[in-house]
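Exam revision sheet. Question 4 asks you to relate a sequence to its structure. Input first:
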Amino acid sequence: MQHLPVLPLLIPLLGGVLLLSPPLATTLRRQRVTGTLLALLQLAVAVYLLLQVDQQGTLVYAMGEWQAPFGIVLVVDHLATLLLVLTAFLLLCVQLYSCGGEDQHGKFLHPLLMFQALGIQGAFLTGDLFNLFVFFEILLIASYALLIHGGGPQKTLANVHYVTLNLAGSALFLFALGIMYGTFGTLNMADMQQRAAHIPANNVQLAKSGAMLLLVVFGLKSAMMPLHFWLPRAYAVAPAPVAALFAIMTKVGIYSLWRVHSSIFGDNAGDLANIAQPWLWPLAWLTLAVGVVATLASQTLRALTANLVIVSIGSLLLMVALNTLEATTSAIYYMIHSTLATALMFLIAGLIINQRGKAEDRFVQARPVAQPALLGALFFLAALALIGMPPISGFIGKALMLKAALASEQAGWIWPPILLASLAALIMLSRSGGTLFWRTRGENSNPTRVSPVQLTAVCLLVIALPLMVAFADTITQYAQRAAQDMLLGLKVGGDRA
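Answer key, structure tokens:
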């Protein structure tokens, strides 16, 4: 059990290789069973790690017994384990949904999902900036292939833009790492946090330039204004399970902002303290404003959901800019909710497309879906979650953010955009629901029905949202401990697992 912290990396790595091996690669049924079992195993390991960290505190695992700051270190704290559980649960839902027929549209979907999970979970666990770059590249390479799953000119065009921008972001990331290493003498995040206040005066400006480059990189990953324009096009054409898994990718950018700019360049960083704050405030506000405008202009359900992802990112960025314990706690809760809610709507959009024919999920008059009662009920629940109406968890998440803004006397800057975003979501989701389910003509001769395994995946996400309400106090307390860990900073050493 001493090597438990490395299992979230080994399971998807070895699982992806296993799914590419000849005995499994040639048989779709075996891939489905193996992929589902691997997803369940990852979820079990993530939950166990969460319980262990809650009891014992942060675990630091030195790969190969090489201690920080020279070795590769995995840091398993409250925030990392919470996001590991979220990633593993989302992977399980996506894996189940894919078994309903989506994996027949192209090869290697199941191993690619494993490699994508490897990159995401590695980014949450790493305690080293260079290895954050490595895991970014792993998740990006897997996402390039996942985005064009099933083929088609729209996916290819969106993928070209997506790949080009992310390659540019990777180049900037490498430049920033070189600057950081030259000024800090290390890339271990905990070590950097200790040295930030003691950077020689002649290196301060260089360190500031590296920090701002990292802000650009993480802004691109999180779809922060004005680096957001790749997201709506990519998410709107991606297959339903892929778009659902992509719902957590932007959160990796937010997580990185917390780890770097709230910890390394936090209040105790001397001349480098809070260097990103003057930029985060206007960029967060603009991201939310642009997301609201794009939401009102959406023409398809997938595009609407993608733009609501941008709205959620703008809301989270406001909390990152606020940078208080209450704001960070509320942001963690809302991050979990928004990831589950947008993933749910992407999967529902996929079900609607399967039954609506050539009209797909466009907001136009078309033939009715084959199962209007089932899909309508699922859409209604997902819409309530995205709007932030009670009794779904979005209401609690937004209430916590508004309360955090009130406590810090920043309500005048934060309340209006968040409330206007909820109003825009209410208007567009009401309009889209009316169009998709009521403005119909003719009859549906399509025999396609929701497969049991797809319905199971969707229901798991539906159930998770009210469970977040039922256990809101427990989740909020854990999120508060996660926020305290992060604001206090990462551990250099400590008890190794």
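Marking note for examiners. The mean pLDDT is 90.
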